[in-house]
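Quick one: structure for this chain?
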Amino acid sequence: MEMLIVSSERQKRLIMLFSRTTAKMSDKALLKDLDSYQINSSVYPAFKTAPDLRVERIRLPYGDDRNGSLDGGDFLYRYLAKGYVCLGDFVGQPKPDLTPWGVRSVRKQPKIGFGL
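Got it. Here's what it folds into:
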């Protein structure tokens, strides 16, 4: 199980992609293929063309959605705490759990995504 975080430090935005199997694409190929992912956000077209995009790969325990949820939440919280906005609505499993960091709800930005 793998969670991919594609982020732009300049735009302070990110997307999360989940895969039950380890992604076989290189980071460069993944960034070139961002058009194949449907993210429901009005700012996604500008995000895809950002020159400073980077990919972070997080291995999550396969079959253990509870620990995967905590690990995913840890990485997501690190970005959101720095002011990043996650584009779109959450889609995928396991859903990152932010409650260990005291986050009970996220602030939704209509047609953009969510943040702290």
